[in-house]
Amino acid sequence: MPKLLKKSIIIISIIILLALAAGIYFARGKKTPPEFVVAKRGNLIQEVSVTGRVKPAESVDLAFEKGGKVSATYVDVGKQVSAGEILVILESADLFAQLKQAEANIKAEQARLNELKAGTRQEDIDVQKVKVENYK
Q1: What was the pLDDT predicted at 136?
Q2: What are the tens digits of pLDDT across the range 78-102?
Q3: Into how many domains does the chain fold?
Q4: How confident is the prediction for the chain on average, in pLDDT?
């Protein structure tokens, strides 16, 4: 091998080694010292802002046995309630009037029943005799 070829191979090898050494040196860069922080106790607060729909775990549909107008409400919409709690009251004026009418009908029928149990009155017999005579 000629001397010139050996010399050029050595020079190229040295240049490659220097380039590798420089690359390794600059790749490492300056090391930043670690940062130390003192740990403190505190409340962790994490806020999450999302868009979507909230569905209840349980939903119940309510209905009345009879229809009518609402006279009083005791619970606001969306409030949690427990079993047996009064939520609303319906107007009872119509039902109260029907109750009084039924009570009056009972008294009238009781009076009529008592009359029938007592027997026929003489006036009724006389009226019936007159009616029979008139039909003849």
Answers
A1: 57
A2: 888 888 888 888 888 888 898 999 8
A3: 1
A4: 83
CA distance 50 to 45: 16
Q: What is the 3-state secondary structure (H, E, C) of the chain?
A: CCHHHHHHHHHHHHHHHHHHHHHHHHHHCCCCCCCCCCCCCCCCCCCCCCCCCCCCCCCCCCCCCCCCCEEEECCCCCCCCCCCCCCEEECCHHHHHHHHHHHHHHHHHHHHHHHHHHCCCHHHHHHHHHHHHHHC
Within a domain: 6: no
In a domain, 115, yes or no: yes
What pairs with residue 73 in β-bridges? 88
Identify the burial level of 59 via C-beta atoms within 10 angstroms of its C-beta, where 0-12 means exposed, 13-18 middle and 19 or more buried.
exposed
Tokens of 42: 């505190």
Read off the pLDDT of residues 104-133 as tens digits, 9 standing for 90 and up.
Answer: 888 888 887 787 777 777 787 788 778 777
In sequence order, the 6+-apart residues with CB closer than 8 A to the CB of 64 are 90
